[in-house]
Structure formats: C-alpha cells, structure tokens
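Can't paste images in this forum, so I'm doing it all in text. The chain is below; anyone willing to post the predicted structure tokens underneath?
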Amino acid sequence: MDQQPKHIAVAGATGAVGIEILECLEHRRFPVSELTLLASARSAGKKLTFRGKEITVKELTPDSFEGVDIALFSAGGEISREFAPHAIAAGAVVVDNSSAFRLDEGVPLVVPEVNPEDAKQHNGLIANPNCTTIVTLVALNPMHLAFGGVKSIIASSYQAVSGSGAQGIAELEEQTIALAKGLTMPERNVYPHQIVSNVIPQVDAFQENGYTKEEMKMHYEGQKILHSPNLKASVTCVRVPVMRSHAVSVTAVFNEQPCVEAARESIAAAEGVRVLDDPFADEPLFPTPLDCTNKDDCLVGRIRKDLVLENALTFWVVGDQVRKGAALNAVQIAELL
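Text version of the structure:
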C-alpha cells in the first residue's frame, strides 16, 4: 500500500456505515492526512471522534471535494448519483457503497479478497458490492479457485434488521419490549409484517420474475466479480429478528468434483475468512451471527457434500454486514488504491 497520507472524505459520515468506516480507518491505521466528514444539512454541525480528535461534520455540497484523494460514499444511491460526479471532477477516487453504479460497464465491482486487480481498472469510481454478495463470495472464492470454477449457486440469506438501518433495529427493539410485557404491538414503519418472533421472506421490492432486487444482486454481481458471465444464482433473502450480522446457506455447483476436506483447507488458507466446522465435537462447532459481529472475518461451517446435485457442496457462512459487508470492504478498496 502507498503509505503517503491521503485526504479522505466520508459522505454519509453520521450513518451506521459511515461511523463504521471511521472505526475501520482508525483500527487499520489508514494513512489519513486530512479527514472531511460530510452529511445532510440536518446532520451538519455534529461532531464525531477520530483518533482522539473531534471533527465537525460538514454539509455535503458539490464543492465538498476540493483536495480530496479518496471519497468513501455511504449515503444512498440518489446521493451517490448526484454527488459522486462532483467528487470525481475534483480529482478524487470515489468508492461507493450504494447499488447505483455496481453493474455499470467500466465501473469495477470489488471484493479485495476476491478480485483486487479489478480496482486498478477504475476511471475515478469503484463500487462496493451488496453485503450478502460480499459475505457469500469471500467464503465461496477459495472453493471457486480450488474446484475449477463455480457454475451455479442456490442460496438462502438470513438478514439482520441492521440491514434496514437504525429504523429496523428500533422496530425490532420496540416489538420485543411489547411482546415481553404483553403490550399491543406498536405501529410498523419498516417491515410489512411483525419482525419479532417472525421471519419475512422479502428483502427489497419484488421483480417481474418473482425474485426481489436483493435476490438478483448476487446473480448479477457474482457474475461480474468472479468474471463468470454464465454463473447462475437462485437466491431467497429473508429478514430475521437478529440485530446484526447476516448468515447465508449456500449450495454451490463446481466444474470439478469438490472435496470437503480440500474445501476446508482452501478456506483456511484464504484471507478474510475462517473455518469453524466440527459437527462431531462434543459441542458441535459452527458459526453464528454473534460470532462475527464487530469482527472483520467471515466464518464458514457446515461444509458438506450436497446430496442432490453433482459436483456440489453445501455450506453456511456468517459475516457482519455493516463491517465486512459495507464499511470494511470500502476501506480495503481504499487500501488497494
């Protein structure tokens, strides 16, 4: 990594991912010469702490990026579409966490443990993939390389309410209190159904093919990240009453015959992912969302030969979608720059 300190801007600095980005920059000792924190007019004036110093948040405007080297955007797709061009015009490289540019031709879509070389092909803009795609591919890529490439994926995700932001967390907390005290359930503002003591098989809007936008992201983003245009993914995304960290059950079909032990070895040798997989221990070992919350690495377990499909393995992976699924991945892309 070029250790010359950089002027970093964070757009959406007061949001959950923005705050996590600051923690990652500090924890990983990113060489920051100057830090500009940007948010909406409503949040301007707030103070956030970075490396022991308070920094005042400024209003995001088209003129916010003078002298900025890298701009980390996590303020939503509309904001990215409006302000990313201004950052690029000012000479910054934008790393965008929204879905606005992910599938645009000429915009690299990067998971640093999977396709770091793609980051070098940018024209001022690099996209951060969807959180579920990141968590899945960090685990899948070692097997993809070991077994001649992945042909197809069947997956079900179990997605925490923090994926809906602070409002999703608040709704689960309010409903949990009401359930515990026997009170009337509060009015729903985030989810179409009660989330406490329930699961909701809808994350994002439904498309004409019956899949949601969230479910199609792994299909299209997986093709782009793995440079596998024929890769197919059939995904069901489910919102579950978990505060933080997503889990994904994956069945992957490979071009070559896979081996469970070789799969474990390939994952153990990879960056950003660890194996927790011993079903025959006195206390069977497998990862849960709590095991990876506030942690950098994704965790993999339940690796087994699929009983239905040829050349297929089934496995379970968990990852902190606020951290590795968003903030950390963006900071790692900045490190690649």
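The mean pLDDT is 96. The first helix runs from residue 16 to 27.
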